[in-house]
Amino acid sequence: MNIRKEDTVQIISGKDRRKRGPVQNVSIKDNNVTVEGVNIIKRHTKTNPGVRQGGIIQYEAPISLDKVMIVCPHCDKGVRVGNKFLEDGRKVRICRSCQEVID
Q: In which residue ranges of the chain is CATH 2.30.30.30 found?
C-alpha cells in the first residue's frame, strides 16, 4: 500500500482531474480513498428526530486508488512511488522521478 492517511494526492482522471488534497481515509478492502475537497456529492436526506437536520447534504465520496497519485514534496507533481531500504534498515517510500524520500 503506497498511499497513507494525510498524504497529499493528485487526481489523474475523472471530473476532478488535476485537483489536489490530503487523504482523509484509506480503505484497503474496498481499494479506495477519501480525499478532502474532491468528489463532492449531494445526498437528499429526510429529517430524523434528534439525529440531524434534513435537506441537501454535501460530502466527499470515496474515489478509486487507481485514479490518484502521490504528490512528491520535492518535485511538486504527481509521481509513481517506489520502496527503498535505508542504511539503518528502515523501509521508506521514494519518488521514482527524483529519487528523494517521501516519508
A: 1-71
Fold classification of 1-71 is SH3 type barrels. (2.30.30)
pLDDT digits (tens, 9 = 90+) for 15-58: 999 999 999 999 999 999 999 999 999 999 888 887 778 899 99
Q: Does this model's pTM top 0.70?
A: yes
- The span from the first CA to the last CA of the chain, in angstroms, equals 13
Q: Other C-beta atoms within 10 Å of 24: how many?
A: 15
Spatial distance between the Cα atoms of 47 and 26, rounded to a whole number of angstroms: 30
| Residue 7 neighbours by CB distance under 10 Å | 19
CA 1 centroid distance within chain: 12
Residues 6+ apart with CB under 8 A from 44: 55, 56, 57
